[in-house]
Amino acid sequence: MAEYLLEAQHLRKAFEDKTVLQDVSLGVRRGEVVVIGPSGCGKSTLLRCLNGLESVDGGEILLEGQIISGQKKNLHLIRQRVGMVFQSYDLFPHMDVLGNLVLGPTRALKRPSKEVETEAMAALARVGLADSAHVLPRQLSGGQKQRVALVRAMLMHPEVLLLDEITAALDPEMVREVLDVVLELARSGMTMVIVTHEMRFAEAVADRVVFLENGLVVEESVPAQFFHQPHTQRAQQFLASFCYDSVRDGKNMQNTKEAN
Ligand code: ADP
Ligand code: MG
Description:
Blueprint: E1 6-15, E2 18-28, E3 33-37, H1 43-50, E4 58-63, E5 66-67, H2 75-81, E6 82-85, H3 97-107, H4 113-126, H5 142-154, E7 160-164, H6 172-187, E8 191-195, H7 199-205, E9 208-213, E10 216-221, H8 223-228, H9 233-240, H10 245-259
Parallel strand pairs: 3-8, 3-9, 6-7, 7-8
Antiparallel strand pairs: 1-2, 1-4, 4-5, 9-10
Helix pairs in contact: 3-4, 3-5, 5-6
């Protein structure tokens, strides 16, 4: 058995004359949750390359040790094995929730619709949406839509799930309900590559953090190390941008001065 379920070796990707991924290597083991640090450019491009939505210009992508990059004729199979959820839900607006959920498994996997419906209903109940099977996406909140999008991805039974800033468009109070579903998937042993700006969540869910900058991996470590003692100055700067202690300290100093 290959050491990594999903592996990128020296990936290179350019759009016209702009190199977005310079030389990215990344290995994801079974059941592992890897968070790509949101620093600068290339995260979405990397995820899109990993599931065949973008072709690569150099390097290889391997799934269970088999090269999958450059295999145009197997693209549908690759996208089924490597699932992806985006920031913008991408549900079909004219179909109800159940319709959206059964489409992939019945069309792409040729599974009987009754069987998929039963599975979809059970999955909806697990994410707290049992009552939403027959409503249209526009009747749902952003958080509900994103939970439906996660269920839809899982119904394809992917081996790896790629999540690209799936809470970035949500109002803060809806972020948690979506991240709880992701946490539940992680607990169930789902292998995931997650791009997120939710640093506390990243620290809680990740087995490993990979920090990308300008199309290169600049730091890779376990969350305890990355979030509390990052090696690189770039990671330190990045984490500091999420920290407001200095703002509070500055304000307190100001108040003390005024009191004097
Ligand atoms: P991130 O997800 O880290 O914000 P992206 O991977 O979306 O970064 O984009 C990285 C860079 O690649 C950006 O400068 C973006 O403009 C460029 N880019 C992404 N997709 C395309 C495309 N299809 N055509 C041209 N440039 C692109
Ligand atoms: Mg992006």
